[in-house]
Structure formats: structure tokens, C-alpha cells
Amino acid sequence: MYFMLLSSFNIDNFRNLSQTQLDFNNNCNIFYGKNGSGKTSLLEAIYYLALGRSFRSHILRRIIKYKSDSFSLFGKIQQKNNIVPVGITRSITTGKQIKMAGKEISSNIELTKLIPLQLLNHNSYFLLYEGPKPRRQFIDWGLFHVEQFFLSLWHKVERILKQRNVAIRTKSPIDHIKVWDKDLAHLGFELHQYRKQYIESLVPIAKDVLQKLLPDLSINISYFAGWDLNFDLEAILANNLKKDLQFGYTAIGPQRADLELMVEKIPAKDALSRGQQKLLLYGLKIAQGMLLNKLTNKKCIYLVDDLLAELDLQKCTLLANTLSDLQDSQLFITGLSQDFENIFITHTDKKKIFHIENGVIK
Ligand SMILES: Nc1ncnc2c1ncn2[C@@H]1O[C@H](COP(=O)(O)OP(=O)(O)OP(=O)(O)O)[C@@H](O)[C@H]1O
Ligand SMILES: [Mg+2]
Predict the structure, then answer these.
(1) Are 224 and 243 in contact (CB under 8 A)?
(2) Which residues line ligand 1 (CB under 6 A)?
(3) HSE-up (13 A, CA, CB side) for residue 228
(4) Tell me: the pLDDT tens digits for 293-350?
(5) Whether residues 274 and 302 fall in one domain
(6) How many distinct structural domains can be found in the chain?
(7) Pair 231, 315 in one domain
(8) Which of 240, 267, 295 is the last residue of a domain?
(9) Of 31, 40, 90, 123, which is best to mutate to test ligand 1, by the most ligand atoms within 8 angstroms of its C-beta?
(10) What is the DSSP pairing of strand 360-361 with strand 82-91?
(11) Which of 245, 260, 295 is the last residue of a domain?
């Protein structure tokens, strides 16, 4: 078994959180406290350590504690038998510093690979309510963690698209636009095959999870490549060039890939209640973690903000059980009251409960 745990965590000048050192449980960590106490900030800090960015703000000033100029986060990641120390400091004056196992690294990619992390919070609703981008990111998250060559392929496709779009926007000669089509079609198809295969592996696992969480509903998950697969993408790009010139960008291709979530032929966002939507989206993310484990033996860390919100007691318990069933996956869960610890009826040595008050975690 390949453990992937955040065993200890130091926080300094992050949001409202007091300077603190925390030792986490290997399984379930529960944080409760009033509105504004710092629960989401704590999850945000863990997320920041793994991904080098926040899920709430791109503005550094908003994340650093008021009246300070920098924040730092330091964690110990436990893998099998070894411990990897990781740290990130972001300063208004001296910039960004990321360290992993004593060495300074230039980007977070290695950290992100080291700590596969799933965020389950109200942003998850973007998967239903925004355009296809978050759904593509959802698929690509999985591929990033399981396919060694996926990231470089993805970058290549992005670069080609960018150059093709610049040529379109600047109304370059037709040849200067078409020069990208062959590579875009070829690499785009490769990208599509990765995505298709990933979704094919994910769907049966997701169906199992959703069967538990939403037993009365039959949810259909299907993947769309971004173009009509009955035709060659290079030919489509050529046929569509006139429209692309009108729009000012490449309208068809792998950059339009999407995931369709339907209930009895109705889009899930129209067919499901708010609580059902939450269970669907969290179920999909839980399934991704299970697939990751199946394919790579890695475990992902789950951050679950406000577990109880929008769910009745029975559904809450179902969700909690499903999360607890992810054996050895480390969970960080927040809620307003202590009551919900009873929902996790795991053995006491498998959970640790923290109280947060005015940024102080106990
Ligand atoms: N940069 C910052 N420095 C200090 N405090 C901040 C900063 N940014 C936000 N805060 C404050 O930190 C507090 C904690 O916010 P947080 O979102 O973590 O609360 P929460 O416990 O998740 O609350 P809720 O239950 O309402 O979701 C809030 O009072 C917020 O105003
Ligand atoms: Mg919150």
C-alpha cells in the first residue's frame, strides 16, 4: 500500500489562523467551529501546500494574514516508510519559495504529483453550472495523476492552439493558420484517446459509488471528444476555418471536450435537487480517488468543507460512510458543530477532532 499522508503541518500568517503546529490523524481529521473561525482557511492552507495556489483568491494580499507581508506553510508528507518535508513561503517583497526534501524547486508540479488532493466544497457545483472547462479539468486531473506523458501532451496541444489562435486573430495568411492543423489533429486525437480511456475506467467505479449515494437515480455519464469523431479532425479544422476567422479562435477540437451528466435524459443540473447534486459531484470525486488508487496505488487526500450543508442526516451518514470506506485515504472535514462527529462512527484511533475558535486550532 502506498501511503500519502500529511502527518504534520505548520501554519504561519495564513488568513486568520494563528501560528500553529498540528499533528494529523492518518485517517479522519474533523474541524468544527463557528462561522468565521477559520475552517475553510485551514483547508485552503492544505490545498495551497499541495497546489501552490488557493481555491478562493488569486490575490496574495488576501491570503496573507492582515498586516503581514508573507505566509509560510510547512508539512511532512509520509510515504511508505519515508517522510518528505515540504514547504512553501510566499512573500509580497521576496516572492515565492518552494522546498521539497530539502531542495528548492521551481514549480509546484512535483508537489502536486506527490500529494494528489481532492477538494469537495461548494466549488464542486462548477462542474454542473459552469461551461465545459471545469469538467475537462476534472478529467484531466485524473490523467495528470495516472498518465506519465499526459501533462507534456496537454502542454503541446495548448501551445499549438495558442499559436493557431494568434494566427487567426492577427488575420495571418491562410497557410500560416493551416500549418498547425496536422499537429493539432494528431495530438488532439491522442489527447482524446487518453480522456476516453480514462472515462471508460472511471464510469463503472462512479456508478458503484453513486448507486450507494443516490440509489433511486440512474445517472448517465458520457464523454464528448470536442468534435464529431466520424470525421478526421484535420478535415474539420479545414472546413471550419471560415467560421474560426469569424469567431477569432479555433472553435472545434480537444479544447472543447466535455462530460455530460444526465438523469433520465435530462441534464443533471435541471433534474437533481441541490443535495442530490452535491452527492453526485462528491461521488464522482470519490470515484476518481478510487480509480487513482486502483491504477497507481496512490491515495488521495480529501478536503471536505462543510460536509453537513444541504444534506439530511441519512445522506450525510451515507456520504461519511463512503468517505470512511476509502481505507487509508486521509480526510480533512469541516463542519459547524461537534454533532457531526457522531456521523463518523469510526474507531477513535482513526479520527482526531479539532476545535477552531478565532483562528486558534485545538
Ligand atoms: N488575510 C486575512 N487575514 C486575516 N483574517 C482573514 C483574512 N482573510 C479572511 N480573514 C478572516 O478569516 C476568518 C475565517 O474565515 P473562514 O472562511 O476560514 O471561516 P470558516 O470557519 O470557514 O467560516 P464559515 O463556517 O462561515 O464557512 C473570517 O473572519 C475572515 O474574515
Ligand atoms: Mg467556511
Answers:
(1) no
(2) 15-16, 33, 35-41, 62-66, 336
(3) 7
(4) 999 988 899 999 999 999 998 999 999 999 988 877 999 999 998 777 677 766 777 8
(5) no
(6) 2
(7) no
(8) 295
(9) 40
(10) unpaired
(11) 295
